[in-house]
Amino acid sequence: MSDEQPNPNAREGSEPEANDSTPVQPSPGKASDYGSDAATSSGTELDYQLVRRIGRGSYGEVWLACDKEGIYRAVKVVFRASFDHDRPYDREYDGIRKFEPVSRSYDNQVQILHVGRQDEMGRFYYIMELADDQNTGQDIDARTYVPKTIKSELEKRGRFSVQECLTIGTALAGALENLHQHGLIHRKDTSRRKVRLRRRRTSSRLERSCMK
Fold it and tell me: Which residues pair with 127 in a beta bridge?
């Protein structure tokens, strides 16, 4: 990861921010090929450049990142300072480690591509596939990127059709069922801003999970 430092004072519950910091200029990227053959937690050296912060919440921050191939990802950084004790912090870390392989077993869950922990810096992080851009889909421009979510689509369009509601609801129910089948539970709501949209897929942000 980059030496650029995320903010350890981030707190749970903040709304995402679309243009929160001055972006660096990464190499040209593409927003396709986010399959299970991407980076995994094999322990190999990663080479990602943090571009800019695109959201806050869930005890940390979400950053837009670019790898050496020019492919854009989302990186969630969770800070120890956001917790009063070690136990809930370790529980969050253990939960995402358990969810990592599960995330790639069902098409409508956001895929976790790598999980890392940096105790000396008081944080852990995980790398995820990136949602479509609200305006340009999978053609990602780091300077203007805004994640496409149910909330952003409703603000743009006003409402979904009945068929779209059925499709999204079925996808979310299937994602929750997949978690339960693997002994995991989702402990928080699936609000409109937490459901990210990608072409041919609805990726629910169900990554904050833990064992029963």
Answer: 75, 114
197 contacts 168 by C-beta, under 8 angstroms: no
- Report the C-alpha gap between 82 and 7 in whole angstroms: 10
Taking residue 60's Cβ as centre, other Cβ atoms within 10 Å add up to 26
Considering the domain 48-211 in this protein, what is its CATH number? 1.10.510.10
Asked if 8 and 81 touch (Cβ cutoff 8 Å), the reply is yes
Overall average pLDDT of the 35-44 stretch = 33
The answer to whether the beta carbons of residues 57 and 12 sit under 8 Å apart is: yes
Task: Please provide the DSSP assignment of 28-91 as one string.
Answer: P-B----STTS--SS-PPP-EEEEEEEEEETTEEEEEEEETTSBEEEEEEEEGGGSSSHHHHHH
CA end-to-end span of the chain, whole Å?
A: 32
**What is the distance between the alpha carbons of residues 36 and 106, in angstroms, rounded to a whole number?**
11
Q: At what angle do helices 162-181 and 86-103 cross, to 10 degrees?
A: 110
- A 10 A CB-CB count for 54 gives 24
The alpha carbon dihedral of 177, 178, 181, 186 has a sign of negative
User: By three-state DSSP, how is residue 156 classified?
Assistant: helix
- The structural domains of the chain, with segments of one domain joined by +, span 48-211
- Pair 6, 60: CB distance under 8 Å: yes
pLDDT tens figures, 79-119 = 999 999 999 999 999 989 999 998 888 778 888 999 999 99
